[in-house]
Design a protein that fits this description.
It is a single chain. By secondary structure, the protein is α/β, with parallel strands linked by helices. It is built from 14 helices and eight strands. Strands 1, 2, 3, 4, 5, 6, 7 and 8 form an eight-stranded mixed sheet that branches. The protein is globular.
């Protein structure tokens, strides 16, 4: 696959996200999932000469693209790491907005060498940061059957999780599972799933990827830190691509919009509840036109909240 094709990426909810995020053209913003820079470039277009943007990404390929942008754009800097490292990346600075475009990007999914997709054969890696951590193959070939089943159930919501885990353990005894195609075939061979337009391995691959990259743990940690580093009036924009991510974002915003949990009998006024956020509008989904031009946007859900004083 050519370099150009691999790095193609259509940014989802581009205009909607940037409009919601940038309320102060002279402000300081964070793109916590730089990817190939679609949102970042659009944010920079809205900023004045005084505005600044920090990009964050785990993926070395994304960092290479970001370094090129930073070389010609003085208002932009990049941090190589997880958005869960938000506080370290900012070194105590407060910001006017944080954008998180969650999940796996098209360049990661479309490159068989990264091991994210069951549609093309490649090494079973799945790490967003290929310079550190345990690969999917390392985990699949050493984890206990119960742990594999638990991950596939909790992160993939696959009802066949136990059957899949048993098959994986049985097959790895014959030979280590090192490729995406072999793992996909093992799962398909024991799966009873007949979800329309979905490969039987879809949920299990999603679950393993989430586990390997600590995606939900990192999201929970990042949201807590984002609330602390946002200035009053600052915006949090989260774009999710499956229900587990969206549920975390929705509950986080709801919790801090409701304020402190106090006994019903305790007499308190509204301003004593310590409400820290307010949701801005309802969840936003991609338009029909965007879905038609980019089918991967069909599952996208965007939530926006503002930090209160």
């Amino acid at each position: 696959m050519s370099e150009v094709k691999e790095d193609q990426h259509i940014t989802v909810l581009l205009n909607e996200a940037v409009e919601a995020l940038v309320v102060n053209p002279e402000g300081f913003y964070v793109d916590g999932t730089f990817g190939r820079g679609g949102h970042s470039r659009a944010v920079l277009d809205k900023l004045s000469e005084e505005g600044r943007l920090l990009g964050i990404d785990k993926d070395p390929r994304a960092i290479a693209v970001a370094d090129e942008l930073a070389g010609r754009e003085s208002r932009f800097n990049i941090y190589h790491g997880s958005f869960a490292d938000l506080d370290s990346a900012l070194a105590g600075q407060q910001v006017d907005g944080v954008l998180l475009d969650l999940g796996v990007s098209s360049p990661q999914l479309d490159n068989p060498e990264r091991g994210f997709s069951f549609m093309q054969d490649g090494p079973l890696d799945m790490r967003m940061n290929t310079t550190q951590g345990q690969s999917a193959a390392d985990w699949i070939n050493t984890a206990e059957e119960q742990e594999i089943s638990k991950v596939i159930w909790e992160y993939g919501e696959d009802r066949g999780s136990r059957r899949i885990a048993r098959a994986i353990v049985r097959e790895r005894e014959e030979a280590p599972i090192t490729t995406t195609k072999r793992l996909a075939n093992i799962i398909a061979g024991v799966s009873f799933s007949r979800e329309k337009h979905k490969h039987p391995a879809t949920r299990a691959f999603q679950a393993i990827r989430i586990h390997i990259n600590r995606e939900l743990d990192d999201l929970i940690e990042c949201l807590d830190k984002a609330l602390e580093i946002l200035k009053p009036g600052g915006r949090l924009v989260v774009i999710s691509f499956h229900s587990l991510e969206d549920r975390i974002a929705k509950r986080f915003i709801r919790k801090h919009a409701k304020g402190d949990e106090l006994p019903r009998w305790m007499p308190v006024t509204e301003d004593q509840l310590n409400k820290r956020m307010k949701p801005l509008g309802k969840a936003i989904k991609a338009s029909k036109e965007e879905v038609d031009s980019n089918p991967r946007s069909r599952s996208a859900v965007m939530r926006v909240a503002e930090k209160l004083n």
